[in-house]
Specification:
The complex is a heterodimer of chains A (421) and B (110). Chain A is of the alpha/beta class and 421 residues long. Helix content of chain A is 34%, strand content 23%. A 5-stranded mixed β-sheet of chain B has the order 1-5-4-3-2, covered by helices on one side. In chain B, strand 4, helix 4 and strand 5 form a beta-alpha-beta unit. Classes of the chains: A alpha/beta (421), B alpha/beta (110). The interface between A and B is medium-sized, with 12 and 16 residues.
Chain lengths: 421, 110
C-alpha cells in the first residue's frame, strides 16, 4: 500500500514549536491532511509520544514514537522506535547524557508534556535544544540495540546537519534513508543524480506549527500499515552491514527475554578458516514451535511479532558465507545461538566495532552479567562485567568515566590479541 | 614556525606518531567541517573542537600542517590511530583558543 508520511513533527514539548502543537491537534491535523503515518519527534525527548499513540489508537492513522537527537557533533538525527517501551528505555539513557542547562521559557519557549486532554502535566525544566553527550556512532548502536532506525535529519540545512557539521556523510554509517528538508536548500541534492542513486530520500515537514505538517505528497510503499513494516522498510539495505550489529540485535532479544546473564563468545580460527559467534542467555527461553517461527523469515509478517527480522537475517548471512546457524532454546532455561562463517568468504561482512557493541549492551542493561570472550588463533581476551562491578563497589558501571575506560580497555585488549597472532 | 616547536617549546602534546617537521603557514579555526573545506588554506594549523573522524579527511584535503585540540577536548583513540596512518598531526593543548592565537602572533604568524 501507498502510505503518505510525515515522520518528523515537533510537539509542544519542543521549546521552539508552537504551544498548540498538542498531540490531539497534531493527530487531527494529520488526519485532515490524509496522512497515513506520522511520528512525534521532539528535541532530545520522547515524552509526548505515548499520549499521541493513545489518541491515534482508534483512528485511521499510525503514530510512531520518535525523537530528534542532537549528538555531540551537533548533528540532528531522527530515531524511530517500534514500541513505546523501546522508546522510553532509550529516552531514559539519553536524558542522563543530556547537557544540563535550565530552560528560559521567555527566550526559548515552553516545554510541555501533556495528557490525552491536552492538559499540561509537566513542564520540563532542562533546556531540550542542546546536545546529548553521545556520538553519532554510539547513537546508531543504541537505536539498533532497541531495534529502531536512525536517519540524518535535514541534511541540506546550514545548521545542525550532518553535511554542514561533518563536511560529508561518512560511508561507514550505511545510511539508506536520509531526510531532505522542504527549504530552498533542498534543490541542490534533489537535482544531484549521484546522490539520489546512493540514498533514498525522505521529505518530512520538521513541523513546528500545525500548518507546516506535510500535505499528502510524499509516500512510501508498505506491505501493511504497521510500525514494524515502516521501520523495516527504512532499515532494509542499511541493516546488518557488520556482524556486531547482529550481536547487538541478539543481545537485545536476550534482554527482552529477561536474562540475568549473557555470554558472548567470538572465536576466530585462521587455520580452520572459521569465524564463530556464540551467544547464550538464561532468559525465559522459547518452545520448539516459537524457535521454528523465529528462524522463519515469514514469521516477521505476523502481527504478534516478538523477535523481529534479526534472526533470519543473521542466519541468511551465515549460510551465505559457507557457514551454519543453529539456535537451541528451552523454556525457563535460556537460549543459545551459534553462527559459523567461513572467515575468508568474500561475502562475509566485517565484524565491526566490538568495543562499541559491548559498551552499548552494558549501557542498555546495566544489571545483566555479561561475559564476553574473544579468541583469535588461541589468544584470548576476556571481559566479565560481574567482576568489574564487584571491583567498582558503589560506582555504577554505566558511569561515563567507567564506560570510557571500559571502551579503551576492550579496544586495547582486542588489539593485543590481534597483534599477538 | 614548525609544528615541532609547539611541542618542544610550548607544551603542546603530540597525540599522533607523525612527522612534525612541517612549516605552519597560518592559523584557522572553525568547527563546521563544510565551512572549513570551503575556507581553510594549505599549511594552516587548524584549531577545532570537532573530533569526528571526518576531520582527518578535511585536514588531508586542505593539507593542514596540524590539527590543534584546545583545552578540554577529548578524542577517540581510533581517530588518533587513523591520523597516524594518514600522517596527520594532531596536537592537544592546555590553552584556550585565544591564548593559542596570542602565541602564534608572538611567533610572527598572522
Amino acid at each position: 500500500m501507498k502510505a503518505f508520511y510525515d515522520v518528523h513533527i515537533h510537539s509542544c514539548l519542543s521549546p521552539c514549536s508552537e504551544n498548540d502543537m498538542t498531540p490531539n491537534n497534531i493527530v487531527n491535523m494529520s488526519l485532515l491532511k490524509e496522512l497515513d503515518v506520522i511520528a512525534i519527534t521532539d528535541h532530545n525527548t520522547l515524552k509526548n509520544c505515548e499520549v499521541a499513540m493513545a489518541i491515534a489508537k482508534d483512528q485511521d492513522i499510525l503514530v510512531i514514537p520518535g525523537i530528534e537527537v542532537q549528538t555531540i557533533e551537533e548533528v540532528h538525527m531522527v530515531c524511530l522506535f517500534r514500541t513505546i517501551d523501546d522508546a522510553m528505555a532509550v529516552d531514559k539513557i539519553l536524558q542522563e547524557k543530556l547537557i544540563k542547562i535550565k530552560n528560559k521559557p521567555e527566550k526559548f519557549g515552553q516545554q510541555f508534556v501533556v495528557n490525552a486532554k491536552d492538559e499540561v502535566v509537566e513542564s520540563i525544566d532542562n533546556l531540550l535544544i542542546v546536545s546529548v553527550q553521545i556520538t553519532i556512532n554510539e547513537l546508531i548502536a543504541l537505536v539498533n540495540l532497541y531495534n529502531g532506525v536512525v536517519f540524518p535529519a535535514h541534511i541540506d540545512r546550514e545548521y545542525a546537519s550532518i553535511i554542514t557539521n561533518l563536511g560529508f556523510i561518512p560511508d561507514e554509517y550505511n545510511f539508506r534513508y536520509i531526510e531532505i528538508s522542504k527549504n530552498k536548500t533542498a534543490k541542490k541534492y534533489l537535482s544531484d543524480n549521484e546522490f539520489k542513486n546512493k540514498y533514498f530520500i525522505l521529505r518530512n515537514s520538521d513541523a513546528h506549527n500545525l500548518g507546516m505538517i506535510n500535505e499528502p505528497l510524499y509516500s512510501l510503499e508498505l506491505e501493511a500499515l504497521t510500525i514494524d513494516c515502516f521501520i523495516d522498510k527504512l532499515k532494509k539495505g542499511s541493516y546488518m552491514k557488520e556482524l556486531s550489529l547482529h550481536i547487538l540485535d541478539i543481545a537485545r532479544n536476550s534482554i527482552v527475554a529477561g536474562a540475568d546473564y549473557i555470554r558472548i563468545a567470538i572465536i576466530e580460527d585462521s587455520k580452520k578458516d572459521e569465524l564463530i559467534i556464540k551467544i547464550k542467555d538464561d532468559g525465559k527461553g522459547m518452545d520448539p514451535e516459537t524457535v521454528k517461527h523465529v528462524v522463519d523469515p515469514f514469521y516477521t509478517t505476523r502481527t504478534t511479532r516478538k523477535v523481529g527480522l534479526g534472526v533470519p537475517m543473521f542466519k541468511a548471512n551465515a549460510e551465505a558465507c559457507d557457514g551454519s546457524f543453529n539456535i537451541s532454546s528451552e523454556l525457563g532455561i535460556g537460549t543459545e545461538l551459534v553462527a559459523k562463517f567461513k572467515h575468508s568468504h568474500i561475502d562475509r561482512v566485517p565484524l565491526g566495532n566490538m568495543a562499541d557493541t559491548i559498551i552499548t549492551i552494558i549501557n542498555g542493561a546495566d544489571n545483566i552479567d555479561l561475559l564476553y570472550t574473544h579468541e583469535i588463533d588461541g589468544e584470548k581476551f576476556i571481559l566479565n562485567t560481574k567482576d568489574i562491578r564487584k571491583r567498582l563497589g558503589d560506582v555504577s558501571i554505566t558511569n561515563v568515566d567507567v564506560l570510557i575506560w571500559l571502551k579503551s580497555y576492550i579496544s586495547e585488549g582486542l588489539e593485543e590479541i590481534q597483534n599477538a597472532v | 614556525m614548525k609544528v615541532k616547536k609547539l611541542i618542544d617549546l610550548y607544551d603542546f602534546e603530540l597525540l599522533t606518531d607523525t612527522d612534525t617537521d612541517i612549516e605552519i603557514k597560518g592559523i584557522y579555526s572553525c568547527d563546521l567541517l563544510s565551512w572549513v573545506m570551503a575556507n581553510g588554506e594549505e599549511g594552516n594549523a587548524w584549531i577545532t573542537v570537532q573530533t569526528h573522524q571526518n576531520i582527518l579527511a578535511v585536514a588531508s584535503l586542505i593539507e593542514f600542517s596540524c590539527i590543534i585540540l584546545p583545552v578540554g577536548v577529548t578524542i577517540d583513540q581510533s581517530v588518533i590511530e587513523k591520523a597516524t596512518e594518514e600522517g596527520i598531526n594532531i596536537l592537544k593543548s592546555n590553552k584556550k583558543p585565544y591564548d593559542i592565537y596570542e602565541l602564534f602572533i608572538k611567533e610572527g604568524i598572522r
